[in-house]
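Researcher: I need the complex structure. Ligand is protoporphyrin IX containing FE. Inputs:
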Amino acid sequence: MAKSAPGTAGLPLLGDKSYEFYKDPVKFLMKHMVDNKSRVFLTRFLNKPTVFVGSNKVVHELLNEHSDKLELGYKQFMEEIYGENILFTDGDFSTGLRDALSELFTVDAIKTYQSDIDRAPVCIYMFFKKLAIEICLSLFLGLDFSQSDASLVTDLTVTHWHGIISVPVAVKIPMMSETTYSKALDAKRKLLEIINERRKEKRHQFPKHVERLPNFSDVLVNNHLLLFTSALIPKALSSILTSFMIEIGSEVGNQNMLLEDPDLLERHLLEVVRLYPPFLAGRRIICEEVTCGGYRFPAGHALLYMTYAAHRDPDVFDQSDAFMPERWSQSNKNDQDKLFTLGAGPRQCIGEQLVWTIIKTVINELLRDYTVKLLPDQDLAYKWLPVSRPKGNVLVTFQVRNSTV
Ligand code: HEM
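Model: Output:
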């Protein structure tokens, strides 16, 4: 017999815990899991009764086996900023969009983008975020970063992004500002104009690929190009790259081995995204009651699958807070499906292959030419929202390999 998740949804508005969550999400999670003696608990978040799920087994089952009863929960915050696209659709419509878009992200399709991905690492001294923005904008829109107008587009993507973290929802959350939001809508309008111009030039391959997808109206083509070029993706890419450099930057001797052994690199990357997933959580709206892991998930509630907590669930990962790449060839050899960094199930990240291609290209290019050394005595404490990364600057030196300096 399934039980309700422990905890309480409290009174509307008064019982809302959004502020507490945004202030320090990891502390919030830990406190509620301890207080409720459960990795699954009920609370009120964004003024909606929300079940937080930090059990790896339950997240896995919900995303893979009960997805037909769950809808993606992002429309409320982000639809105005992005316009209609796959992320805000459900049911047959989203399946149709996914089937079409998936063609653009197969291993073979990605091989044809490799030259765009390779071109970017000339910006080796810039921050990973800038590098990732350049990769995405040159891949998806064909922008040339030796031209000055590319930096205008970069600035617009940043302004557009700031709108997402200032979304006007019913509950007051930190970082919220109406001016930022209206600036973001203005940036969206300008970005859509630029996307239209790039499409008219008909020189670049990726926009043409999207135009050829079945049943993609002009609006859908533009909105998906807007989604792909949004700062959200480069931020996530740079989150992974930065976390990786932190983990390897204090053991310079290991870097040759990572370069020479793709399996070793893979294990390091799996461990990086396990401990430092760029997105702490994903959201669903429960449209039909689900029973899972012994819990009842009532229709009308929201749920947050807590990637961070599921990745540190000691039922699946022994010494779950420790960085142990070797676990991926030993105790967790067959557990890649227990990682939710890129989601799971039918709504898993469509760009999964592309993410790994970009990450591995950047790392291989970088380690081939440089040794990366993390400067000692830095405060590397993380912040987890809106995208995980160390709070302060991370200082590394890049020493040219074989240099005598
Ligand atoms: C490190 C980079 C990335 C991370 C961490 C990431 C993460 C995710 C996650 C967790 C989801 C599932 C959301 C959920 O379950 O609620 C998702 C969905 C999605 N991702 Fe990514 N993503 C990344 C890069 C990309 C790239 C490069 C693309 C394509 C250009 C992309 C396109 C999408 C799309 C279209 C969806 C929605 C799929 C659907 O609604 O069915 N992502 N991503």
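Model: Summary of the prediction. The longest strand covers residues 40-45.
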